[in-house]
From TrEMBL:
It is found in: Cytoplasm. This is Glutamine--fructose-6-phosphate aminotransferase [isomerizing]. The active site is at K352 (for fru-6p isomerization activity). It is an enzyme of class 2 (transferase). It comes from Texcoconibacillus texcoconensis. Residues 40-179, 209-347 form the SIS domain. The gene is glmS. Catalyzes the first step in hexosamine metabolism, converting fructose-6P into glucosamine-6P using glutamine as a nitrogen source. GO terms for cellular component: cytosol. The keyword Aminoacyl-tRNA synthetase does not apply. It comes from the Bacteria. Homodimer.
Amino acid sequence: EKGTYPHYMLKEIDEQPYVMRNIISKYQDENDQIKLDDDIRQAMQEADRIYIIAAGTSYHAGLVGKQLIEKIAEVPVETHIASEFLYNMPLLSENPLFIFISQSGETADSRGVLVNVKQIGHRALTITNVPGSTLSREADYTLHTYAGPEIAVASTKAYTAQMAVLAILAVDTARASGLEMEFNPLQELAIVANAMEALTDKKEELEKVAREYLSVSRSCFFIGRAEDYFVCLEGALKLKEISYIQAEGFAGGELKHGTIALIEEGTPVVGLATQPHVNLNIRGNLQEVEARGASTCIISTDETYQEGDQIVLPRVHDYLTPLVSVIPMQLISYYAALHRDCDVDKPRNLAKSVTVE
Ligand code: F6R
């Protein structure tokens, strides 16, 4: 039930801190250590390469998941769009493990891949919000995202929950392989929950940003580098699916190779600049678009902040920044859709779970 909320989407955005705390409690044992099935741990250990398969927002979570698993557990990971992998399978490693990420657990494109890889004898783990769903039943292992039912078509809390579970899985794998690990995802997710709350408390400010940048524009670009780029893909998807503004996420450095031709006077460009090691680079890209007339809206942290930035995120562990940087994007998309009188929870042409290929 959406209770006093005007839309499920807004309710689900607001539930994210609670979802984080729920995930912490579900994945914590009595000694405050990560609780995970031994057979999943073993499957992760035995894999020489991990293939993450997903669609839409879950694919975007998978892009962040690749970074998490590679950096934390030092296992190579490829993330693929399910519908592409289905008819254009790459050369596989000798001992692959497949991870399917799916809120609904019913996405036909992902299921097609699962059927194929099971047929050739590979093992599969499904990360889903619906245990008992098709992808969960047909895979060897399941990890539950515990986000609670997600009703709005635009996925919000399932995305952050997927990334949280991927971080926990990555650390568990790292520890099992004997890697030194200071990063404690359970503790750090509690900090994420607080940071999310601080951002969901800034609705008025974010509504203003949406009004200022997006009430009349026909298009919008989201640019970032490294992990920020992956979150930009998700920010753009959220905005386009519910507000019908043509929105695209781009890697900051790639803009000048063509897309910058689209920048006109007043084109909104959301810049995500949360990472010190690429801050100067993305700032340069933002100046390039500003020089061509773009109105930039910059999201940074206190570490990367420059005077004039519109949104400053509370600090969380670097690995988990995507869980926080996506929140203003979700809220800006929500308000942009609201200002344009769109049907926020049920955007045109879309279904919550896509059970046809
Ligand atoms: C976007 C959205 C879709 C889904 C995609 C995959 O907001 O909801 O892009 O993410 O259809 O769905 P699941 O995760 O159920 O496999």
